UniProtKB/TrEMBL annotation:
Keywords: Cell membrane, Membrane, Transmembrane, Transmembrane helix, Transport. It comes from the Bacteria. PANTHER family: MULTIDRUG RESISTANCE PROTEIN MDTG. This is MFS transporter, DHA1 family, multidrug resistance protein. Residues 19-404 form the Major facilitator superfamily (MFS) profile domain. GO terms for cellular component: plasma membrane. It is a multi-pass membrane protein. It is found in: Cell membrane. The chain crosses the membrane at residues 21-45, 57-78, 90-109, 147-173, 179-203, 224-250, 262-282, 294-314, 320-340, 383-402. GO terms for molecular function: transmembrane transporter activity.
């Protein structure tokens, strides 16, 4: 038994496994890079001028949303280029571009420069989507669910850990040095990807490259692929709908007494911990019992968890429920990626995954807008109930899209 364990741990790794480990670290850092500014963005903007409360709220919302809006628009272009030139090239372009842009954010002198750089950061998106596409095409089909499940833990955990990491680094080193540290780490990601990620890909000729309409018409199950793109939007909307009010809701639960900032950071990170632990297991289980079934069970579980969140009576109850949401994410997000990988031809993988990133970015924008609007019109409790209702409707959509 011990010999088997030692052989499993120390055996030579195949190329797809090496790719997976390097790209996991890369997607984790890319997720952090996109979300680390959340806890201190408003405070950083406040140091760049004398703003009223309404101006500060406006510039904060615009600065945060700018990256995701550009990502939603530009991703299909990068997807087409990935299908023509290869996914590794797009990974290198995204990591190096993000490194310099985020590093430059440490040097801005006014809010307009910061907004501009956040827009440019959106242009250099695509690391996560192309990492998924590369793993999907380079991994044996029998291992794809497990591999994509493991890879998804990187981006999801990075996105959810980002606010906590950003808050801690900013508290210790200051706002500006936080951007520089992140930039240096992304340069490390660039070199790791350049030297240790291998792609066996023959770029398509321009004559053979189909346009988007031809790709969707040529899919064996276009209804399922489109259904998964919408599912990505709904899942991301659900994850981000409560992001504007988490700290405020924690403050309300704690009756404005105690270490509210630390508690908010821990609660915000709980889903990332759960996703990190559970996603590979759900990916393996999906390969055995069916990925679509895992997705639907994950959505139902998320609905069940969001409802009691509206009535949490203590910070411990809220934290446990947030952890359970991470388990539902571990079931849903890798399942979507796996279904897309298994139902997309290799010549179109880059573009389909880039469309998926566009829908993910739109969910990242729509979620906070819906959450802040509902909380402004009524109360925090209704944000959780509304999110549960949206996911409930999404469950019927997924059920329809995955019918044979």
């Amino acid at each position: 038994m011990l010999e088997k364990i030692k052989h499993k741990m120390f055996r030579p790794r195949q190329k797809w496994e090496k790719n997976l480990f390097v790209l996991w670290f890369g997607t984790f850092m890319a997720g952090i890079a996109f979300s680390l500014v959340m806890p201190f963005l408003s405070l950083y903007i406040d140091t760049l001028g004398n703003f009223s409360t309404s101006q500060l709220n406006f510039y904060s919302g615009l600065t945060y949303s700018a990256t995701f809006l550009v990502t939603a628009v530009i991703s299909p272009f990068w997807g087409r280029l990935a299908d023509r030139k290869g996914r590794k090239l797009m990974i290198l372009r995204a990591s190096l571009g993000m490194a310099f842009v985020i590093g430059l954010m440490a040097l801005v002198t006014n809010v307009y420069q910061l907004i501009f750089l956040r827009l440019v950061q959106g242009i250099f998106s695509g690391y996560i989507s192309n990492a998924n596409a590369l793993v999907a095409t380079e991994t044996p089909k029998g291992q794809s669910g497990k591999a994509l499940g493991f890879l998804t833990t990187g981006s999801v955990s990075g996105t959810l850990f980002g606010p906590f990491v950003g808050g801690v680094i900013a508290a210790v080193f200051g706002y500006r040095l936080t951007f520089l540290i992140t930039g240096f780490i992304l340069i490390l990601v660039f070199f790791l990807s350049a030297f240790f990620v291998h792609e066996n890909y023959l770029p398509a000729n321009d004559k053979d490259l189909k346009n988007s309409r031809e790709i969707f018409h040529g899919l064996k199950n276009s209804k399922l692929v489109i259904g998964m793109l919408v599912a990505t939007f709904l899942i991301q909307l659900g994850n981000f709908s409560i992001s504007p009010i988490i700290s405020l809701y924690v403050r309300e639960i704690m009756h404005n007494v105690g270490p509210i900032t630390i508690a908010s950071g821990i609660v915000a990170s709980m889903p990332g911990i759960a996703t990190l632990l559970a996603a590979p297991r759900f990916g393996t289980l999906g390969d055995k019992i069916g990925t679509a079934r895992i997705l639907k069970l994950g959505m139902l579980f998320a609905i069940i968890v969001f409802v009691p969140m509206a009535f949490a009576g203590s910070i411990w109850q809220f934290g446990i429920l947030r952890f359970l949401i991470g388990i539902s994410n571990a079931a849903m997000l890798p399942a979507v990626q796996t279904l897309l990988a298994k139902n997309t031809p290799s010549y179109a993988t880059g573009r389909i995954f880039s469309y998926n990133q566009s829908f993910q970015a739109l969910g990242s924008v729509a979620g906070p807008l819906i959450g802040s609007t509902i909380s402004g019109m009524s109360n925090y409790n209704n944000v959780f109930l509304s999110t549960a209702l949206i996911l409930f409707l999404g469950f019927f959509w997924v059920n329809f899209a995955t019918k044979k």
